[in-house]
Every structure is written in structure tokens, then in C-alpha cells.
Automatic annotation (TrEMBL):
Residues 2-147 form the EVE domain. Transmembrane segments: none annotated. Gene3D superfamilies: ph1033 like domains. This is EVE domain-containing protein. CDD domains: EVE.
Length: 150
């Protein structure tokens, strides 16, 4: 099992939205960064644990935990011309973008970005280094530290 952090803008899709979704599950679509796509395609597996992180909001924070329930598959929005995630270069035969399905596990007491940056025991998390990736790995040690905090 591996550990991940998935960023989302709460005005678009929040931990509450995930909890209220049918079967408390959703397909994590719209990833349009190659490094994040490669994580989803090549490394994120069923059973992996995911921090849900609210970004681009007043208080960015880790707010909950989800689990990956379905491995990477083609993101259907890349083929939808009416979608913000449409990609004219993507084809059914050769999709460019993928997503995974995640399921809500629980809310956490918010672990703010400020608290993460102030924690000297957190050294590997790309989020601490102002990384803008929407999907990033979390080491098991740092996962445990953050879970204990939240």
C-alpha cells in the first residue's frame, strides 16, 4: 500500500462532496499535468490511502482520508468537447489522461498548510516545498505523523 495527497478546490469538489456522493465514491478526473498523470497511471493502486487536501481557499489544509477503489482508467472528459478538460489530441485508441476512483473514509481535523510547513518532522512532502502538483506521494512515516496530528 502507498500513500498519496490529492488536491482539490473545495468550491469545485470538497471532502463533503465526496462524503455525499453515491456510495461515497467518485472518479478523480481532470488531472492535466504529466507528472501527476504518471503517478495515477503507474503508481496509484487499489487500496492506496489518500489525503484529501483543500487548496486555493482561505485556509489550505488536509481535511480527510479516502481510499483508491479502482485503478487508473481513461478520463472520459478528455473526449467531451463541452468539458473544461477536453483534449483535442486525445483519442479513444490513445487516451492521454487518466483518473482513479476513490471512496470517502473519514474527515480529519484540518491540518493546515501552515502547520505542515512548521512541522520540522515533515521533510519529504512536496507540498511543503511549494509544489503545485495536484497528486503527490506521501511517505509512510509522514502519513503516520500527519494522521496523528489530524
Amino acid at each position: 500500500m502507498a500513500y498519496w495527497l490529492f488536491k482539490t478546490e473545495p468550491d469545485t469538489f470538497s471532502i463533503g462532496d465526496l462524503k455525499e456522493a453515491p456510495q461515497q465514491s467518485t472518479f478523480w478526473e481532470g488531472i492535466r499535468n504529466y507528472q501527476a498523470r504518471n503517478f495515477l497511471r503507474d503508481q496509484v493502486k487499489v487500496g492506496d490511502q489518500v489525503f484529501i487536501y483543500h487548496s486555493s481557499c482561505k485556509t489550505p489544509a488536509i481535511v480527510g482520508v479516502a481510499i483508491v477503489t479502482h485503478a487508473a482508467e481513461a478520463d472520459p472528459y478528455q473526449f467531451d468537447m463541452s468539458s473544461d478538460y477536453y483534449d483535442a489530441k486525445a483519442t479513444l485508441k490513445s487516451p492521454r489522461w487518466v483518473g482513479v476512483t476513490i471512496q470517502y473514509q473519514r474527515h480529519l481535523k484540518p491540518i493546515t498548510l501552515a502547520a505542515i510547513k512548521a512541522n520540522n518532522d515533515i521533510t519529504e512532502l512536496a507540498l511543503k516545498k511549494a509544489n503545485r502538483l495536484s497528486i503527490m506521494p506521501v511517505s509512510e512515516r509522514e502519513w503516520d505523523l500527519l494522521i496523528a496530528h489530524g
